[in-house]
TrEMBL record:
It comes from Pseudonocardia sediminis. Keywords: Hydrolase. GO terms for molecular function: hydrolase activity. This is HAD superfamily hydrolase (TIGR01509 family). Gene3D superfamilies: HAD superfamily/HAD-like, Putative phosphatase, domain 2. It holds the Pfam family Hydrolase.
């Protein structure tokens, strides 16, 4: 296994509930009487893209909103909440990243969230995880097309000078799995708190804890 590609910030630390709370804070800040309870939010997570999600919800309830502005507020609230959240790396993440380095495998974060969100997460997780632990970070400033488009993974594979067959992707949502599979990658589903009920049939494996040795077994060159 030449590289491990973490597909979202929630594959490193489970931030899903912080995200939902940030959405609700943004709605209040923009004078919207919306409240996404957990059941409502769970149903939205089969597709990704925060601004798109807001726009689609607004259309469903017959409202007109500036989805981009609301989403920008949401991202600000999310970053603010991360700083004092005490969020920690998910089970097995630190050991897997260390083992990868020890074995000569590269580690990348391949997300299409904003660079500010990535920076906020890494700051919250330090010193356990730092920017220097990644050989590559792909974010929304790197590629134009969000997942399920394969652009982010294609860019990562090319930039790392690796082949899809020798890498493994880790994803916590269905669009991410679709993007990984479309890129020819073996993908391990690592659901977060709010995607645990999703059907990850396209993934090569589903796990609740990361383990470097187990990840090695799912690469196409294993």
């Amino acid at each position: 296994m030449s590289a491990i590609l973490f597909g979202s910030i929630s594959t490193i630390a489970d931030t899903s509930e912080l995200q939902r709370t940030a959405f609700n804070r943004a709605f209040a800040a923009h004078g919207l009487d919306w409240n996404w309870d957990r059941d409502t939010y769970l149903g939205m997570l089969e597709s990704s893209g925060g601004a798109k999600r807001i726009a689609e919800y607004a259309e469903s309830v017959g409202a007109t909103v500036d989805a981009k502005a609301v989403h920008e507020s949401k991202s600000e609230f999310f970053r603010e909440s991360l700083a004092g959240s005490g969020v920690r790396p998910r089970s097995g993440v630190i050991d897997t990243m260390k083992a990868a380095k020890d074995k000569g495998s590269k580690v990348a974060l391949v997300t299409t969230t904003s660079p500010d969100n990535v920076g906020a997460l890494v700051a919250a997780l330090g010193p356990d995880i730092t920017v220097g632990d990644f050989d590559l970070i792909v974010d929304s400033s790197t590629v134009d097309q969000p997942k399920p488009d394969r652009a982010a993974y294609s860019y990562a594979i090319r930039t790392l000078d690796e082949t899809a067959e020798s890498c493994v992707a880790i994803e916590d949502n269905l669009n991410g799995v679709d993007a990984a599979v479309a890129s020819g990658l073996s993908c391990v589903a690592f659901p977060n708190e709010n995607t645990a009920g999703h059907d990850f049939a396209k993934a090569a494996q589903r796990v609740d804890r990361l383990d470097f040795e187990e990840l090695q077994k799912v690469t196409r060159t294993a």
